[in-house]
C-alpha cells in the first residue's frame, strides 16, 4: 500500500487528454479539510500528460512547499479544496486551467498536466 510519505509514481495516462479538470483521490486523508483561499503545505509531482515526463517535483528538491491557493494555477485552486490533510490526490489539468493555450508564454502552455499532491497541512 502507498502511504502519502512515499514519492508517487504516475501511471502513464491512456486515451485522449481530458478537456475538464479530473480529480481522483488516491488516499483519503482524515485531517483538516482544505478550503478555497487557504494556505496549504504540500508535496507534489507534476508530469506532462502526453509524454509522461516529469517537469517539477517537491520530492526532487527534498522539501515540501507552503503557499496560498489563490496564487496558483486554476486547476489547483479548483482541485485542492475538499482534500483532507494526510490525503493524496491526482489532478489532471487541461491547458485552460493550467498555463493557457500553446504560445501563451510559459514552457507548459498548451499542455495537459498531471499532478499528484500530498496535503500535509492547511492554515
TrEMBL record:
InterPro entries noted in UniProt: PPIase_dom_sf, PPIase_FKBP_dom
Keyword Membrane on entry: no
Assigned EC number: 5.2.1.8
Catalytic reactions of this protein: [protein]-peptidylproline (omega=180) = [protein]-peptidylproline (omega=0)
All residue ranges annotated as the PPIase FKBP-type domain in the record: 37-123
Top-level EC class: isomerase
Chain positions covered by the region annotation Disordered: 1-20
Record GO terms (molecular function): peptidyl-prolyl cis-trans isomerase activity
Keywords: Isomerase, Rotamase
Compositionally biased intervals (Basic and acidic residues): 1-10
Transmembrane segments: none
Domain of life: Bacteria
Pfam families on file: FKBP_C
Family from the record: Belongs to the FKBP-type PPIase family.
Name of the protein this chain belongs to: Peptidyl-prolyl cis-trans isomerase
Species, as recorded: Nakamurella endophytica
